[in-house]
Amino acid sequence: MQTDWIFIGIFLLIGLVFPTVPLVAAFFLSPKKPNLVKNETYECGVETVGDTWVQFKAQYYIFALMFVVFDVETVFLFPWAVAFQAMPLFMVVEGVFFIVLLAGGLIYTWRKGALEWV
After folding, report:
1. Whole-number Å distance between alpha carbons of 3 and 14
2. Alpha carbons 105 and 100: distance in angstroms, whole number
3. 60 φ/ψ angles, rounded to the nearest 5 degrees
4. Are 86 and 37 in contact (CB under 8 A)?
5. 12 in a domain, yes or no?
6. Tally of structural domains, the chain
7. How far is CA 19 from the centre of its chain?
8. Cβ 52 vs Cβ 41: under 8 Å
9. Residue 90 lies in a domain
10. What does pTM read for this prediction?
11. Residue among 117, 102, 91 at smallest CA distance from 68
12. To 10 degrees, what angle do helices 89-112 and 58-82 make?
């Protein structure tokens, strides 16, 4: 019984040591020569003008979320479509329910106007 917990403890110890050792080593071994030019904000080689902190519209975030939702939908529906002929009726109904649920989310997002690029 205790041997099972020893393996879990060793696994946790290794999980903590592996990421910590390189970070600590890099902190102590890296050269530290700060100067004014290195501390400036770098934007693609162009000198910054004005405030460098710019807020992005939330619409970009909504577009990214919609892409992720439909990308995940594709990953889930591809095996379902491949094995469609060998499925029982219950699995077909669940797949159709999944598609209807995602279509409802798309219609909701569309009606809210989140998909209009401004």
Report:
1. 17
2. 9
3. -60, -40
4. no
5. no
6. 1
7. 21
8. yes
9. yes
10. 0.48
11. 102
12. 160
57 close to 49: Cβ distance less than 8 angstroms = no
Whole-angstrom distance, CA of residue 60 vs CA of residue 57: 6
> Which of 70, 104, 99 is CA-nearest to residue 84?
99
- The DSSP line for 30-59 is S-----TTTTS--BTTBPP-S-S--PPPHH
Structure tokens at 3: 């041997």
The C-alpha atoms of residue 95 and residue 84 are separated, in whole angstroms, by 10
CATH of the domain at 103: 1.20.58.1610
Q: What string of pLDDT tens digits covers the 118 residues of the chain?
A: 677 789 899 999 999 999 999 999 999 999 888 888 777 776 666 666 777 677 777 777 888 888 888 888 888 888 888 888 888 998 889 888 988 988 898 898 889 887 777 6
Report CA 7 to chain centroid distance, whole Å.
31
